[in-house]
Amino acid sequence: MPPLLSRRRLAALPLLAAGPALAAPDGSLSRVRDAGVIRLGVQAEGTVAATRAPDGSFRGYLPELGRRIATGLGVQPEFVPVPRGDMLGLLLQGAFELGLGGAIASTWLALTALPTTPLMQFQLVVLTPRDLIVSGMAELSGLRVGVLDGRSFAEALHEAGLEQERTVIHARWEEAAEALLRGREDAVIVPGHHAREIQRVAPQATARFTLGEFWHCGVVRMGEHDLLRAIDVLLHLLRHEGQLSMLHRAFFDRDMRSGRTL
Questions:
Q1: pTM of the complete model
Q2: Distance CA 247, CA 7 (A)
């Protein structure tokens, strides 16, 4: 595995993160570095994005990326488990400094918290039983459709044209899989990494079409621009050195590329 970041670039991080000379420091980066730890909110849902191992450790793409961010900041990572739908609420309550994933890039998100540079790309996938063939959103009209909980996820589905009053909301992908398996729902719409797990436990679930490309961002609290700038610099360097694409490809079998954001 390549080194995290070159020493020269790590040495330049404080200067790069300082931003314009006229920007008054807000103390968010200093607090993290003084504490020696950054708390990272993660939705560990048993997918390649993030999962909790039997020993309690966090594994997957987002935890690995979080470790690299922490190392770049010169601190230790501390992972905080986040239930689906609670990422922004717990962030605003101060449960962690950086939320990893669980927030889809959107105008609404930018009005609620400070989003980082996009760090994960995915597609929304429509799954139906093998004997129910659909090829577009119009054909979902009148069907029972399951979706995952979360405000930013709901915003993405609204942007894709799904009428929310026709949906059943699930807190976990396992619930959506069981509903499809038992015939309680005709279709479910989930991110690609959740679709992979649903098809593993319910092989008759068939991917019919996708609703475009979306991005997960990290999030920090409003006003914490020092911390945001430092994280964005690190993400830029990881992308420039090819490490972000390498990680994304290793866990999702696809490269990060330019695509649709809300």
A1: 0.83
A2: 20
Task: Tell me which residues of the chain have a pLDDT lower than 50.
Answer: 1-22, 258-262
Structural domain span for residue 145? 122-213
221 and 110 both lie in a single domain: yes
Tokens of 262: 């809300």
pLDDT (tens digit per residue) in 215-224: 889 999 999 9
Separation in Å, CA 104 to CA 113, 123, 159 = 12, 11, 12
Residues 232 and 106 in one domain: yes
Q: Using the CB atoms, write b or e for 33-63: b if 16+ within 10 Å.
A: beeeebbbbbbbbebbbbbbeeeeebebbbb
Instruction: Looking at the structure, tell me whether residues 231 and 177 fall in a common domain.
Output: no
Using DSSP bridges, classify how beta strands 98-100 and 58-59 pair: parallel, antiparallel or unpaired: unpaired
- 16 and 100 part of one domain: yes
Residues 93 and 182 in one domain: no
